[in-house]
Every structure is written in structure tokens, then in C-alpha cells.
Design brief:
alpha/beta; Rossmann fold; 6-stranded mixed beta sheet; 4-stranded parallel beta sheet; 12 helices; about 35% helix
């Protein structure tokens, strides 16, 4: 049985795992889930084909059932033609577009809604660049909880249609996700709905970390040398770096297993992490006038900036940005050379990888996992 508590990622303040927690009341930084029981062995994996096969290392009690729509177990697509074209030894594309509501956000929302429902919330609210709102709408419907979503009016229309299809209240906002976030937090305070914004609750990270477990299992319990991750709020990057350490501690990996270099890929029109990383800063200043057609990357002030930068530096990783032209070019390139229906965020990851290989930062003998975080169909009108 999983037993856990919450620990502030900055000041170390703790709360019990039974708390309905948002951010740390002492310093306002995100909580992380810390497990109190000894790490289980890989024998604890259960025979089911969603992310809850790893429930032994997730925040769920033995007497609970998850709120699930079959998320996880997404393909890891070997891409030898693209690897040769780029000049790396191996390249795999982790295609998260196969999740419910067509993005990786399903993993985080499954975990977050499971815990929120168990703790008896009245309803759920989230600001979104698109995919998180669609995922919350679906998982709220599955849990029979009301949902309100605040989204920029510029969000791709197919994603907005998905949110409406699941019966959520949708409020369109002039501006970016930061503007939507302010309205969502105000609504949470006035309504009693629980805010499941990125890193304003501790469990979306736990769902996202299953991407890291799946990579290891799909590669025969080893890890690639590099992971390239399109980074907006950065929950997936933070979660994977967290679980790589947890897997090594639990001997799901060899004790001396080398962990991947984590690479954050951002759009040049909204690159607060890239700028902070290059400056050697421990936190990122908000990006002024964010703009990119890769809507999931249009996050000007990620709450997890310190955690993202920490993961990049601890992993001897890197951060780089791609232009709008490069993103469009490599979204098509990724689809044409792999058969993966790439979202613009996946195209951004490919463009950044190509640049880092050309500059010699990613070596020719690298074995790389590149994330396509959603389906290209969500962006086509």
C-alpha cells in the first residue's frame, strides 16, 4: 500500500497525504509527493494496460479505484530514418497523442482527479492552453464532478470543442494562460471548486511521471542517454526526473544506471526557461508578450520554473528554443518520417534536437527519446 506525505519543493514544509493541498502555505512553492514506505520491486506492477499498472508507486490507497479512461501505455516509436537524418545512434518518439483526449495531460488529470474525488471536492477548475482543459473536462465527467475551464480565446478550436463535448463550463479569455490562471484562482476562491492548475496541486506530477516508467519498461528497464521534452509548464519533465531517481532507489533500474540528460524545448516566442538556463539563474522571469502557435508552450511564467531548472542542471541537460518556422517545418518532418501525427509541440522538440546535434551538444552516439505530447489533429481546423 502506498503511504505518502507532501513536502514543499523549496522550504521543506510538510503536510499529510490526506490534506487537500494546493501550494505550500509557508512559501507558495509547489508540493511534491514523498513516499513513506519502502520502494516496492518491479513485481508490484499489476497486469493492466494503463498507467495504473504502476499503482504501487502512485498516490492511491489499496481500497480505492482510480478515475481512469485508459490513459498511458502509449507507443514508443522507433524512428531509424529520422535518427539517420539527424545523425544520432537511436531515436524513439514517445507518442502521447494516443491518450484519452489526445494528449499527455490525461495522465496528470487521472491522478489529480482520483485524489480530488477521494478528498470530496465540490468541483474542479483549471486554466489551460488547451489540452489540460480537455483532459480535466473528460476526467471530471468520469468522476461525476462539475468542471469549469478558463482558456485563451486563441486556443485551437478542436480542443475547445472537446472541452464543450464533455459538458464542462468553458470561459474564453482574451490573453494568455497567465490571464486565464488569475480568473481560475479567483473562481476557486469564490466557489469552493478545487484548482488543479499545473503544480498548484501535487498529483498531476505523479501521473506524468509514469511517462518515465514506461520509457524504462519499453526499453527493457534501461534509459536513453537524452530525453527531449517540449516544455510549457514542465510538469512532465519534473515528474520524469523525479521518477528516474525513485526507480533507481527501488532497484527498478540498476543502482549504477546513468540517468538521461533532460532537454527542455521551448518556442522562441515564449522561452522563459531557455533564457533563465542560459543566464545561470535558479528561477525564470516572466516572458513578456508570449506568442507561438504551439499553444501548449505559451506559458510565460511557469510555477515550476525552479524545479525545471533544477532537473536540467542535475541531469547535465540543456534548454533551447525553436522559431515558428522551424516548429512548422519539423512538425511536418516528424510526421512524414515516422508516421506519428505530430503536434506543434513535438515539432518544437525535433527542431531543438536537430540544433543541439548540429552544435555538438548531443553526440552522434546518443540514444534519444523525443516526446510528441499531443495529436496534430487537435490543431487542425
Amino acid at each position: 500500500m502506498s503511504v505518502w506525505h507532501l513536502e514543499c519543493s523549496a522550504c521543506g514544509h510538510t503536510e499529510p497525504g490526506t490534506a487537500l493541498a494546493t501550494v505550500c502555505p509557508e512559501c507558495g512553492q509547489p508540493f511534491l509527493v514523498r513516499y513513506d514506505s519502502a520502494p516496492p520491486s518491479r513485481d508490484a506492477i499489476v497486469p493492466r494496460w494503463d498507467m495504473w499498472r504502476y499503482r504501487a508507486v502512485l498516490p492511491i490507497r489499496d481500497d480505492e479505484e482510480p478515475v481512469t479512461l485508459g490513459e498511458g501505455a502509449t507507443p514508443l516509436v522507433d524512428a531509424p530514418h529520422l535518427a539517420r537524418e539527424l545523425g544520432v545512434a537511436r531515436l524513439w518518439v514517445k507518442d502521447e497523442g494516443g491518450n484519452p483526449t489526445a494528449s499527455f495531460k490525461a495522465r496528470g488529470m487521472s491522478a489529480a482527479v482520483t485524489r480530488a474525488a477521494a478528498l470530496g471536492v465540490a468541483g474542479l477548475v483549471v486554466p489551460t492552453a488547451g489540452n489540460a482543459g480537455a483532459a480535466l473536462a473528460a476526467y471530471g465527467a468520469a468522476a461525476r464532478l462539475p468542471v469549469r475551464v478558463y482558456a485563451p480565446a486563441s486556443t485551437p478550436a478542436p480542443i475547445l470543442d472537446t472541452i464543450r463535448a464533455f459538458g464542462a463550463e468553458l470561459e474564453l479569455v482574451e490573453g494568455h494562460i497567465g490571464d486565464a490562471g488569475r480568473l481560475a484562482r479567483a473562481f476557486a476562491r469564490s466557489s469552493g471548486y478545487f484548482d488543479v492548475s499545473t503544480l498548484r496541486e501535487p498529483y498531476r506530477i505523479e501521473g506524468k511521471k509514469t511517462m518515465g516508467i514506461e520509457i524504462a519498461e519499453q526499453l527493457g528497464w534501461r534509459l536513453p542517454t537524452h530525453v527531449v521534452y517540449p516544455t510549457g509548464g514542465g510538469t512532465g519533465l519534473i515528474g520524469m526526473w523525479k521518477v528516474f531517481g525513485e526507480m533507481r532507489d527501488g532497484r527498478w533500474l540498476a543502482r549504477d544506471a546513468a540517468l538521461p540528460h533532460m532537454i527542455a524545448a521551448q518556442a522562441a516566442g515564449c522561452a522563459p526557461i531557455v533564457r533563465a538556463f542560459a543566464a545561470g539563474a535558479s528561477s525564470a522571469e516572466p516572458w513578456e508578450d508570449p506568442g507561438t502557435h504551439a499553444s501548449g508552450l505559451r506559458v510565460p511564467a511557469p510555477l515550476g520554473d525552479r524545479l525545471i531548472l533544477r532537473a536540467l542542471r542535475e541531469s547535465a541537460g540543456q534548454a533551447a528554443a525553436a522559431s515558428e518556422e522551424e516548429i512548422r517545418r519539423d512538425t511536418a518532418r516528424l510526421a512524414h518520417l515516422t508516421g506519428v501525427d505530430a503536434a506543434p509541440e513535438g515539432g518544437c522538440a525535433l527542431a531543438v534536437l536537430a540544433r543541439l546535434v548540429d552544435h555538438g551538444w548531443v553526440p552522434r552516439d546518443a540514444e534519444v527519446v523525443l516526446f510528441n505530447t499531443g495529436s496534430g489533429a487537435s490543431y487542425r481546423v
